[in-house]
Amino acid sequence: MKKSRFFIAASCFLLSLSFLSGQEKITLTIDQAVEYALENSKSLKSAAIDLEVKKRADFYSWNTLLPSASLSGTLARSNNIDSIKSQMDTSAVIMGMVMNPSWNAAQAYANKDKIIDGMIKDEEATYWHPVGNLSFQWNFNLAMIGSMIVSRKQYEAGKISWEKSCNDTELQIRQLFYSILLMQESLKIDEESLANSEARMKQAEINYRNGQVPELSLLNARVTYQNKKPSVEWSRQQVSQQLDLFAFLLGLPYGQKIELNGSIDDEYEKFHSNLVELDASELYSKHIDNNPEVQTLRKTISVLKSGITAASFKTFTPSLSVGWGFQPTVTDIKKDWFDDSNYTDGGNLTITLVYTNLFDMLPFSANMQKIKDTKQDLAKAELGLEQLYQNTEMKINNSVADINKSLDNIASMNRNIEVAQSAYNSTLRGYNNGSQEELAVKDAENSLKQAKLGLMNEKLTFITTVMKLENELNTKLVK
Predict the structure, then answer these.
(1) Inter-axis angle of helices 30-40 and 215-250, nearest 10
(2) What gap in Å lies between CA 263 and CA 285, rounded to an integer?
(3) Which end of the chain is more exposed for a tag (fewer CB within 10 A), N or C?
(4) CB-based contact 173:315 (threshold 8 Å)
(5) Do strands 68-77 and 319-326 pair parallel, antiparallel, or not at all (unpaired)?
(6) Closest by CA position to 34, among listed 251, 323, 257
(7) Are 121 and 334 in contact (CB under 8 A)?
């Protein structure tokens, strides 16, 4: 179950206060480490940007339906004034009849050239005339709706990818957290073994002074102790380096010391006691569709189908184009531009239904070949989905079997540790009494150490397998 945003903010705020206060070391639980990584992971921030791009593309996909609009103004000078005079014929006839009431239309038309010359006050100004243009163009094809659907599906696929990235990051942090805990537990065992070697060396010195053991036993005890010291120091260094790496993955500043609050035993008990009953068939039937890879591939198939539909619409359906334009042209620049007799409108309304390229419908055209390629990609994706279902079912069954096997191994190893502990205690008492050799104690100690390390490794294997299965099913199996 996801933590609340308040918990995330509070955890990050406390960590920030630790940095600002100059605290030498901070302590992190597994949940705090995960939440901090989810908030500060650079890869997740990059994935969030990709998701935002897809979200914006989906939200504004309707803008493909917007018309195009243009507005322009032109100041034109005619090369020949005769064309301008020809546009003034009607005005000249009317003006002649007004000025000479005795004229009829035929007489006014016969004298139109003189009347026009009288109307033109500035010949140069007559050459010039402004031309305006305001136009709108709206194009529509069913493929545009298809592209909007594709954008929506791509955004949905992006959300699935984002969630998968978050789950993978959480799994990575948890695995590293637990592996470091294992290294620390192993280091504790090594340190205990080193301390035991030192104690045996001191006991050998006492026994040697008391004449109970030969000098060779004392030398063997010293060599054993000195040989263990470099190994323990190397283990300490490895733990320190892994903690630095962990801090780096969390996004903490370099040099910030951290301490992990937890233990393999505690985490195992939490997982073991709260684990739901596992039935591979039931898990598969209930949660297979939650698998991130399945969801991603199914969404990919949906995107491909929508793309094929959009391409078919674009190829086999006509496009509708609606255009409207207003183009006023002023006849005389010195007269009132808004006088109806002084300008003409060259604009119009057009409605066009057109197939953009009829050759795209031909079976051998590049367009049809591209559609066929997409259909084959779709067929491959559907086969991949069937294979993914089968592979996931097999992985679920194997994981459940591995979990049950780990539980059996852990029960057996616990019994082995009890026996190894008893054998070590008995051998150590004999060594302290002078009745056992150093070699016998070392063998008993190594057996106990290997038993403990094997148990911790098996517990980590159990925890890791459960987490991987949770990630595979995209659900929680630990209550």
Answers:
(1) 40
(2) 34
(3) N
(4) no
(5) unpaired
(6) 251
(7) yes
Cβ pair 282, 193 in contact under 8 A: no
The secondary element (H helix, E strand) that includes residue 402 is: helix 366-432
Residue-wise pLDDT tens digits, 335-386: 666 666 666 777 788 898 888 778 888 889 998 999 999 999 999 999 999 9
- What is the number of other CB atoms lying within 10 angstroms of the CB of residue 142? 16
283: CB partners within 8 A, 6+ apart: 396, 400, 469, 473
- What is the DSSP-derived secondary structure letter of residue 130? E
Furthest C-alpha separation in the chain: 160
Local confidence band at 5 (pLDDT 50, 70, 90 cut-offs): very low
Long-range contacts of residues 289-293, Cβ cutoff 8 Å, at least 24 apart: 290/473, 290/474, 290/475, 291/388, 291/392, 291/472, 291/473, 291/474, 292/160, 292/163, 292/164, 292/167, 292/474, 293/164, 293/388, 293/392
**Alpha-carbon dihedral sign for residues 219, 224, 229, 234:** positive
Query: What one-character-per-residue DSSP string does 257-268 give?
Result: EEEE---HHHHH
